[in-house]
Design brief:
Elements: H1 3-28, H2 33-50
Helix pairs in contact: 1-2
């Protein structure tokens, strides 16, 4: 596993944590920024890990 893959995996895991942490507030308020940041981190991290 290369550096890029491990960075991507870490980003994706971090993003998932952010999403899980902010899901309650997101359900009340759809303009919840941390939720979307978490989603972006997860997608970007998965993308980096998948495409070397």
């Amino acid at each position: 596993m290369g550096v890029k893959e491990s960075i991507g995996t870490m980003l994706a895991v971090l993003g998932l944590f952010i999403v899980l942490a902010s899901i309650q507030t997101f359900l009340k308020d759809f303009n919840n920024l941390p939720f979307w940041v978490g989603v972006i981190f997860t997608v970007a991290g998965a993308g980096i890990a998948k495409f070397r």
